[in-house]
Amino acid sequence: MKLLTEELVKKFEEYPLYSQDGKSGDAKVIAKFFNPMGQGTWLITEGDIIRDEQGNIEDVEMFGFVNLVGIEYAELGYVSLNELQSVKLPFGLTIERDLYYPEDITLRDACQREFGEVPDILRKEYNLKYTVYQLNDNESNHFLRFEPIGRLKNGIEDIKFSNYDKVYENSREYSIDNIFSNEILEELYEEFNIDIPKDYKGHSLSISDVIVLECDGVSKAYYCDTFGFKEIPSFIEQIKENDKDKTEPDITEDM
Fold first, then answer.
1. What's the gap between Cα 67 and its chain centre?
2. Which of 27, 51, 106, 142 is deepest in the core (most CB within 10 A)?
3. N- to C-terminal Cα distance for the chain?
4. Is the dihedral of CA 176, 180, 183, 186 positive or negative?
5. How many angstroms separate the CA atoms of 81 and 227, rounded?
6. Distance between CA atoms of 234 and 222, rounded to whole angstroms?
7. What's the Cα-to-Cα distance from 102 to each of 43, 105, 114, 143, rounded to whole Å?
8. In whole angstroms, what is the distance from residue 188 CA to residue 198 CA?
9. Count of CB atoms within 10 A of residue 83's CB?
10. Is 180:129 a contact under the CB 8 Å cutoff?
11. More confident residue, 155 or 248
12. Contact between residue 143 and residue 132 where contact means Cβ atoms under 8 Å apart
């Protein structure tokens, strides 16, 4: 198989070496080469075309994600077109190029597509803000405290932002595929029950507590239930309404 085509040459001219430097998993994949007989995948994101004095292409110095013996040992690195073309496989086979690889796919998505997971070196860094809410001491909350959703008289409708006090707020960096995941929530649950921060003023995280996660302009609220967490979109809407009321001017006071 011919590994280099005119179309691919144009892509290398558009994405020379270092053109996607710093993008990590967000870099665009412009070519995929693979071993048709087993392990060996090259997801190429950049390349410099090397020509002789007459302008003929001698080689292409490429950069991308290289997985030769397993995703746990894969890495970002360089490989030349001549190196791939020189690989001799049994039965006269050679390294091949994927003829139908998706356009505009990121390296992170390509790894998920090819290997079923995203390696740590390509995972996106998220700044996650997390806030813990617990029911305040109002007498009306007596029948809501430590109750799972299934035992609330009106279910989710009984989970009202106005009944809660903010007891803790913090943020941290995460490198994970999905920032809004049970993995994060379970980690926070363990933290507020075992490795409790010194400045944490609430009781140990328990049923009826709410955790709000905020990242990249998206907020989601989760109710601590009997088993795991239940997302409560209405809680976020109530927070937004509360913030809106605080920022709107009091017309009667001005008058």
1. 21
2. 27
3. 81
4. positive
5. 53
6. 10
7. 12, 6, 12, 55
8. 15
9. 14
10. no
11. 155
12. no
- With 0-12 / 13-18 / 19 or more C-beta atoms within 10 angstroms meaning exposed / middle / buried, residue 90 is exposed
pLDDT tens sequence across 215-250: 989 999 999 999 999 999 999 999 999 988 776 666
The CA distances from residue 248 to 64, 120, 128, 162, 183, in Å, are 51, 44, 28, 18, 38
Tens digits of per-residue pLDDT, 157-208? 999 999 999 999 999 988 776 788 899 999 999 999 999 999 998 999 999 9
Give percent above pLDDT 90 in the chain. Answer: 79
Q: Indicate the pLDDT class of residue 139, thresholds 50, 70 and 90.
A: confident
Sequence-separated contacts (24+) of 248-252 with Cβ below 8 Å: none
pLDDT at 252 over 60: no
Q: Do 40 and 86 contact (CB within 8 A), yes or no?
A: no
Q: CB-based burial of residue 164 (10 Å sphere; 0-12 exposed, 13-18 middle, 19+ buried)?
A: buried
- The helix (run of H) or strand (run of E) holding residue 7 is helix 6-14
**For residue 106, what are its two tokens?**
């990121």
- In the chain, where are the structural domains located? 6-120, 125-247
Half-sphere exposure of 198 (CA within 13 A, CB side): 0
Torsion, CA 44, CA 47, CA 51, CA 55, rounded to 10:
100
